[in-house]
Design brief:
The structure holds two protein chains of two kinds. By secondary structure, chain A is α+β, with helices and mostly antiparallel strands. Chain A has a domain at 77-240. Chain A has six helices and twelve strands. Chain A has helices spanning 3-13, 18-25, 42-74, 126-130, 222-227, 233-240, and strands at residues 79-86, 90-97, 105-111, 114-121, 123-124, 138-144, 151-163, 168-173, 178-182, 184-186, 189-191, 195-197. In chain A, strands 3, 4, 7, 8, 9 and 12 form a six-stranded antiparallel sheet that branches. In chain A, strands 1-2-6-5 form a four-stranded antiparallel sheet. Chain A has a two-stranded antiparallel ribbon with strand order 10-11. In chain A, helix 1 runs antiparallel to helix 2 (18-25). By secondary structure, chain B is an all-alpha fold. Chain B has one domain. The longest helix of chain B has 29 residues, at 123-151.
Chain lengths: 242, 230
Amino acid sequence: MNDAPREISRSVDSDDSPKHTRPSVITNRDASTSHPSDRLSKKARLRLTHALIAKSLLELLFVGALATVFYYQTFNPYFRGAVDVADARRVAGWVVDERTPAARVEVQLYINGRFVSSDVAAGARPDVRLAGRADDDWHGFSFDTPPLPHGSYEARVYAMHESGGGLRRVMQLVGQPWRFQVEVETGGQSSTPTSTPTQTPASMTISAPSSTPSLISSPTAAPAAAASPGGDAGVNASREKP
Amino acid sequence: MNLATRDVTARIGGSPEQALTAWEIASVVASALIAEWVVLSIGDGAQWLIAFPLISAFAFIIYSQLTRGESWRDLGCRVDNFGAAMRLLLPPMLAATIFCLAVGWFNESVNFSRWRGGQTILGMPALGFLWGLLQQFILQAFINRRAQMIWGAGWKSVLSVAFVFAALHLPNPLLTLATFTGGAVWAAVYQRTPNLFALGLSHSIMTWVLISNIPPAALHGLRVGFKYFG
């Protein structure tokens, strides 16, 4: 690849009348500057290589730091929460932003992927405070499930996180998606014998507090919670679970 | 240095040296891509961080040029061949201007005061020229020269410069196309008559012609990188 042009140059140099033949090789080109063909010394090559490695490392660190800061700003890794109950009557649970435990988190309910309702998690959940997850009692949420025809449904509750001065809003799944069955539809009052969390954790699933199994309802507590129609049924049912 | 080694057709022999030169190009292109696609994607007042990849790229370019012993004259910062370079640039510039005027006339989008490069009457041409000169310095005095070290002068190095220039204007389709064409012409002219001032002038004039004639919606505010979507 590199030899051919040099041979042309050599043949031109060796010509009897180089002044006449030379321009034919560098036709129309400005020969008064050094052209980018100079070889580097070993030392210079080493210096350039070191500079390139240093530049690459610095930029790698820069991009890594930028990505980490961006992630922590855009996705809130401090959300903790769980959905305690999801049935034909209501979807309830709790969520805390552990970075700012006094703040109330906005939550949105989706059933079968469709938006149902939005609310602020500010309901009474003294068990969350007792578990050491929050400084106060007001981190619960409870949505009334809309009238649904007979069938199987999946409820997902998302915590909303805003960043970039309101430019970005990110939805982060609270706990796990919950599947529930609507057996009989009677003007919005349905019976739900089964209600379980789907065992397909999403990428941004917020884990339930493992240190508080007796305070925060486990998936097996859900049917009991579903059976009690009261406002604090989820909490009560959770407490009944050992 | 003898004539044979100064000939543009002569190239670096060893492949490690070619690899190093290719790495130099890739490194500077990576810095530009970091600025366009990473820093600008963060937004919310963090745009000043763009200084890091830009300073890093410029520092390396200067260091590389010093290490390779390239003089300002070698790079094309000279005036003696300005006229010759402009003579080479004029025909393609005229052709592009006629084409842009035709598009502008057809779309009724001709407006020669659309480009706002600065607040004062001198601001626009001055900033436009400096911006063009800066881009041509990186593109020709660094990338083109190193592309020639790898592939020698000719269509391979010219096309590689055009590809790099176009890639840095992704994902703006019209700008990518325009910069590929412009990049090829400027790279070819630089290889024949290296003069950065003529190229900077040509760059700023063609930018003005493009903005003044092509419908603004098609140019998408000249946005490139992640900013294109914002």
